[in-house]
Amino acid sequence: MTGQPGLLIEQLEAAHGRSPVLTGLDLTVEDGALACVLGPSGCGKSTLLRIVAGFHPAARGRVTLRGRLLDDGRTRVPAERRRIGYVPQDGALFPHLTVAANIGFGLPRDGRRERVGEMLGLVGLDGLADRHPHQLSGGQQQRVALARALAPRPQLLLLDEPFAALDAALRTELRTEVAATLRRAGATAILVTHDVDEALAFADAIAVMRDGRIVQADTPHALYHRPADASVARALGEANLLPAKQADGYAVTAFGPLPLTSDTGQDGVVMLRPHQLRMTCEPGPHSVPARVTACLFRGHDHRVEFAPDPGRDLPERLVAYTDAPPPAVGSEVHLRTQGPAHPLPAAGRSAEAETVAS
Ligand SMILES: Nc1ncnc2c1ncn2[C@@H]1O[C@H](COP(=O)(O)OP(=O)(O)OP(=O)(O)O)[C@@H](O)[C@H]1O
Question: What residues does the ABC transporter domain cover (predicted)?
Answer without folding.
Answer: 7-236
